[in-house]
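1st attempt posting a full record on here, be nice pls
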Amino acid sequence: MYSLAQSARMKGAAGEPLPTPFKGLARLDADFRRGEFSIVAAGAGTGKSLFAMNLATHGNFPVMYFSADSNAATQLSRAAALITGDPIKAVKQALLSDDFDAYNGALEERWWMRFNYNSRPSPAEMEMHLLCYHAVYGTFPHLVIVDNISNVDSGDAGDAGQYSFSLESICEFLSEMARETNAHVLALHHVVGEYADGLTPVPQSGLKGKISRVPSLVLTIHKEIDGMDSRTLYVSPVKNREGFEDSSGGTSAPYDLDPRTMRLKDVEHAT
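the predicted structure (as tokens):
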């Protein structure tokens, strides 16, 4: 048992917000706090992986990224463009032509960032990688990204009920991981069919498997496309234990996507 005073002394880094590029969300007190578990959900191709990579590369802090949904070439190109500000087309061309030396210096400065590209990582494998991270660097990552939560191998899930139960179990595991490591654990997730095109606000009930019970923060993303290259992402806090929430998904922080560099930029007005 701990008294309140003892609890204050033992909390460690838990509750400490990570550096974030998302000022609009911060104004809504939608912070990514260490020791907590969050979900970012959107339709396929809407931009949830880009959102996660913008957060991961914003500050030079320890990151472990379980990239089950994207390969090394995709993640390397995105990260290099975000870190250097160079056009992603130029980065991809340099990577394909084996002329990538110009980017090595900038990327080596982010030696804290580590990736696992297994398409079906198990909870045991994830735990092993975190323990290895700690053994090498003397600290756990401050941010752990799981992309996507449905790619985590928890055994066979037959019917819809078993599938939902499996996702709930993974959420419990990831929440415990956050508490044990004092990392912020962010898991990406899909939405149900009626929101799959990414064009309408996604409510809390729109998460596939209805798994919003465990995370302390749930964000959903929808997009607005204006022409070939212009895209705005709207990020909605549909569950937030620490601040503003609107479970309908109707209140959001908007971000313009620069298609050249993959960077997300705050839009001053909110919707």
